[in-house]
Amino acid sequence: MDGYTVFAAALGGLGLVLALVDRVFPANRPCDPREPPIVPSRIPWIGHIIGIIRHGARYYKMVCADSTQPIVTLPTLNSRTYVVSSPPLASLVQRASKTLSFNSLITEVTRRMVGFDEQTMAIVTHNMNNEDGTNTGLMLDVHHAMYSVLMENPELYKMGQSTLRESMKFANSVKKEGEDLDDLFAWTQRGLSLSAATAIYGPQNIFALDPTLYDDFWTFEGGLIGLLVDVFPSIFVRKANNARKRLINALIKYVEEGHYKDASKLIQNRYHAHIGNGFTEEAWARSELGMLMGALVNASVSVFWMVINVFSRPKLLVELRKELEPIVDVDGTKRTVNIHRLRSSCPLIIATFRESLRIYADIQSVRYVTDDTLLADKYFLRKDTVVQIAGGVIHADKGVWGPDATSFNPYHFIESSNQAQISGKDDSAKESTTDRKSRHPASFRAFGGGATLCPGRHFAQIEICGFVAVLILGFDVTPVGSESIKVPEKDDYKFPIGVSKPASPTKVRLQRRKGLEDVLWACDVSA
Ligand code: HEM
Known about the structure:
Heme binds at residue 454. Keywords: Heme, Iron, Membrane, Metal-binding, Monooxygenase, Oxidoreductase, Transmembrane, Transmembrane helix. The protein is α+β, with helices and mostly antiparallel strands. It has one domain (3-524): CATH 1.10.630.10. Helices cover 49% and strands 11% of the residues. Protoporphyrin IX containing FE binds next to helix 1, helix 8, helix 17 and helix 24.
């Protein structure tokens, strides 16, 4: 699987986008009786497409709510999309990667997103599903190049150290007298995404060379669906289209001037894998726009949800401080959080990280059916259709997570034996939860699963938990203009393309904790 298309991996509703535009699906054929039960739409052919445009990520919950089936069929135009809402079946979809292909969809999405020419597309699609059995080709090479850095190893820790060094500069720059923030989301998003950009792309990354590209990046991301639909983008999604042009030009300049030589091993590996397979430097520069999206967007949105959910729950905050204090080394005014100890001996912060993703990452895993497939010896999936695992539906399933499935409760991710040791559960955690041990491993969908399970998950955990740990230990976040911090609604009325953003801004006061005003915060990721 190709890493440069990573962002699009999280594109929920992708099948519906492609059906909406001009993907050439075969003419309609009669239903096979073994196909999953059909959920009819009020408006034939386009009803489900209208539904997803109108209701966004919520639409999948709406269509699955009335069904007791683990998989259903949504007829769309002249094709259909199958929607899976049960963990055991999700796991079977992941395993059937020979005929349920991620690459077949993603290559088309990437072409639209970054504007690859025909020659580049020929390299991308060559042996993309390992058709000739030789395990060669761009997709596989890039996959290996990325996984070798992003799995648990010294290169990952080096990159983690570098991103936390940057985000610590950001945290340490908070004024001693405190700061009023108009929007906590904008603050955390900037802190995390620019830190990761420097860690991954080096000190001469495009945002460092031209800070105006930061706004371009989010304008482009916000208009992505319109760009993928690709109907007169210069008219209908003008701002996003112009932002994309500026980003691509900057990436081309970044490559031409050789700044990638000062980047992380991840980017060095990607360079060699692409150029080695015949990419021009310009084509590689374009592909990095997809990588930037994958590496920055979901992580820098998720961090906000973790911060706001912790600071709006006083008891949870106290428990987390108690858990984290023993892993801080004090040296004069310098305090250093040990990230390896955080990961190995602080279950509550790791559980809070995962719970933030469970609640806010309504991510769809999307696969193209390259050949007729019988799932679980029962459900027939027709060639040239799309199957999606509805992450948001599974994450909200009471049968999987317990009666408080839709509430934020980190104890969903803590073994019941550990729960006894961690006292002071928040009110939100009082209801019983299902036993974690008996939960199906495919129930947590935020990082996808199977062959394309997100390789950036360890990096994301390090950069997010490290940054949030320092905020918890060293800062107070208090409400401005209200008595308590309100967690905003997630904006899941939008087309689901990753972790949901907040629907409204959150004004807060950010202040160093009493007695810790002069502390210089750091994180240590060395093994
Ligand atoms: C909270 C943050 C993140 C979330 C929620 C997330 C989520 C995902 C999801 C859902 C997929 C697709 C899985 C599938 O469809 O089967 C994916 C793939 C991928 N992610 Fe992440 N991701 C995050 C952070 C990152 C970061 C920080 C990086 C890189 C540094 C990264 C690199 C990748 C890559 C390379 C793939 C493609 C895998 C492949 O092609 O085999 N991700 N991610």
